[in-house]
Amino acid sequence: MRTATASVLILTLLFTGCSEEEGTTVPGVTDSGVDSSPGDVTVDSNKPDTAAETTPPKDDGVETTPDVLADSDAAADAPPDAPTDGDAVADVTDSGSEVLPDVVADVPEVILDGSTGCHLVINELQTGSGTIDGGSGATNEFVEIFNPCTSAISVGGYTVVYRSATGTSDVVMYTFGTPDGGTAPSIAAGGYFVIGNTAYSGPRDGDMASGGMAAAGGGVGLRDGTAALVDSVGYGTATNAFIETTVAAAPGDTSPAKSLARIPSGTDTGDNSKDFKVSTTPTPKAVNVP
After folding, report:
1. Are 122 and 213 in contact (CB under 8 A)?
2. Cα(163)–Cα(213) distance, rounded to whole angstroms?
3. d(CA 146, CA 286)
4. Domains in the chain, ordered, with CATH?
5. Residues 213 and 141 sit within 8 Å (Cβ to Cβ)
6. How many helices (H) and strands (E) does the chain have?
């Protein structure tokens, strides 16, 4: 009996040692791993814990939404042509309406007259003294003719004439001639024609006959090929027939020189005192300024 009991004890110890090397045996579990006793669990000490991987996420009723990009991230991902927040968009106002680029239009010097009765005008004159481009003295004079109409006007046979303050006869200062066998000259729509006296150094199209204009008062007229008076102006002390309604002021013969000019260019109300102003900036062959 002692020998049999000792043999059983030795076998039991050997079996127990093998079980401890392979894992912990909980009573009720067979070598095949089949649970023969409910509630008993075999724990494998060499196998990692996978509970965290198999546990489903907690459903707390809160919907998970994708992360929203910050403005800077959205701007980076925006298409090349898309404006980003804070960018100034040149052609759209805050209201969303389109703003067209500034357009620089060709603005005429004056609004040309398209009426049937449109005619050439005496637009500006200077009666001395210095300076336009270095001119000076009593003969630093010019007369400017302007075409305020929408079409060219032929001036063949026209004359620019002068009368003294109390004069009753014309003194011809310039005649628009016609070349032999040629076409009569004309002044284009919106165009200028300037005649200048001997001391005048500014832009000119023709030479004024000697004699000139008195600084204190006188009158200048433009006659067509039939000698009909097309336009005229009386200034200063003039009492002659070239005055239209009321005499205009005299430009004088100061230095720097001043001119008598229609303001704005081409204006013709039939009253010299309203149409003409003394300008401190003569502008031969250009738009008049006060």
Report:
1. no
2. 8
3. 10
4. 121-279 (2.60.40.1260)
5. yes
6. 4, 12
Q: Tokens 């070239």 identify what position?
A: 242
What gap in Å lies between CA 192 and CA 121, rounded to an integer? 10
Angle made by CA atoms 90, 95, 98, in degrees to the nearest 5: 45
Question: Residue with structure tokens 């005008």?
Answer: 121
Judged against a pLDDT cut of 60, whether residue 139 lies above it is answered with yes
Across 21-33, b (16+ Cβ under 10 Å) vs e yields eeeebeeebeeee
Quote the distance between the C-alpha of residue 253 and its chain's center: 42
Structure tokens at 132: 């336009």
Contacts of 177 (CB under 8 A, 6+ apart): 156, 157, 185
Which residues, including other chains, have CB under 8 Å from residue 226's CB and lie 6 or more apart?
157
pLDDT in tens, 142-184: 999 999 999 999 999 999 999 999 999 999 999 998 666 677 8
* Mean pLDDT rounded to a whole number for the chain: 73
Instruction: Give the per-residue SS3 of 80-106.
Output: CCCCCCCCCCCCECCCCCECCCCCCCC
**Which H or E run includes 17?**
helix 2-22
Cβ–Cβ < 8 Å for 246, 271? yes
Tell me the mean pLDDT in the region 278-287.
Answer: 94
Both structure tokens of 80: 């090349």
